[in-house]
Design brief:
The protein has about 290 residues and is α/β, with parallel strands linked by helices. The protein has a single domain, classed as P-loop containing nucleotide triphosphate hydrolases (Rossmann fold). The protein is about 45% helix and about 10% strand. The chain contains 12 helices and 9 strands. Strands 6-7-5-8-9 form a 5-stranded parallel sheet. The protein has a two-stranded antiparallel sheet with strand order 1-4. It has a two-stranded antiparallel ribbon with strand order 2-3. Helix 4 crosses helix 12, helix 7 runs parallel beside helix 8 and helix 9 packs across helix 10. It is globular.
Length: about 290
């Protein structure tokens, strides 16, 4: 699988365009490393703290790919034991996996919604491979960061490569793919993603603004801060992006709402919903979608 993916994911737009990025590798291959991990990066919620994934010690470990630029995901040591949520996640996975028949899962949502974190959890329990589409584009560009690609070549150029990545991934099976926040704006991308199952991770805008302000927005090319409070600037920009994209998210096969999870579990604050709980809800919603398809 790894060799097939590495050979298949070559972006022709980088090698055939007049705007070719200089000093790229000759083959333009995407070097993707799959390593088993015992835990995942914490999902940052706001400036007051973080949400720790309640995944305990997993026997299979996390398959992490493209989780950070040109390197595998970092590992957080955990001494927690297996929780009831771990067991529920495993049980739900065992119920749904045969029905998937290898179909890919695409996670869509606004920036900062936790797509990568949730995708890594799902790929582990399903024994799928994980890809982050933004990281694949960066690797194809010789390690050039998304923010720099936007700055040097424009958003349209980035979107062309994003579409090509999604096209090539759509030809494969057994993948969980975290997509960029703007991947939903092109109808052609939905054509490719609908070959699998698309999952919209729906997070309230104020929560997203808190998360992104806490970790900084330098790597987010569409979040341009002017003068004034960083949170307010981020919230206003996110609101604008939401107006442009909210209708696009309705194309997703299923919707996973953090507010709904919080209500279901009687959790007062959506920031207290942990990634494992989100992954469980994603599997529940996928199962319901598959039942409707029959």
């Amino acid at each position: 699988m790894e060799a097939t993916v590495s050979q298949s994911l070559r972006l022709t737009t980088w090698t055939n365009s007049d705007n070719t990025v200089p000093k790229l590798t000759n083959s333009m291959r995407l070097y993707t490393r799959f390593e088993k991990k015992k835990n995942i990066n914490m999902l940052k919620c706001n400036h007051l703290g973080t949400i720790k994934p309640a995944i305990g010690h997993r026997s299979a470990g996390l398959k992490a790919s493209c989780a950070s630029q040109n390197s595998p995901a970092s590992v957080l040591k955990s001494e927690t034991s297996i929780t009831e949520e771990d067991l529920l996640l495993k049980k739900k996975c065992e119920e749904i996996k045969p029905c998937l028949s290898g179909r890919c899962i695409y996670l869509v949502g606004m920036m900062g919604s936790g797509k990568t974190t949730i995708g890594q959890i799902l790929s582990e329990v399903l024994d799928y491979s994980f890809f982050d589409s933004d990281k694949l584009i960066e690797q194809a560009a010789g390690g050039t960061a998304v923010a720099d690609i936007f700055k040097l070549y424009g958003e349209g150029y980035f979107r062309d490569n994003e579409t090509e990545v999604l096209h090539k991934l759509s030809l494969m099976h057994g993948l969980v793919i975290s997509t960029g926040g703007g991947a939903v704006v092109r109808p052609i991308n939905w054509k490719y993603m609908h070959k699998g199952i698309t999952v919209f991770i729906d997070v309230p805008l104020d929560t997203l603004a808190q998360r992104l302000t806490a970790v900084g927005t330098a790597s987010r090319p569409l979040l341009h801060h002017g003068s004034g409070d960083a949170y307010n600037q981020t919230f206003r920009r996110l609101s604008k992006l939401w107006e442009e994209r909210s209708e696009c998210y309705t194309n997703a096969s299923v919707r996973v709402s953090l507010e709904r999870i919080a209500d279901k579990l009687d959790i007062g604050d959506v920031c207290s919903v942990n990634p494992t709980q989100i992954a469980i809800e994603a599997l529940v919603q996928i199962e319901d979608f598959l039942k409707e398809e029959r």
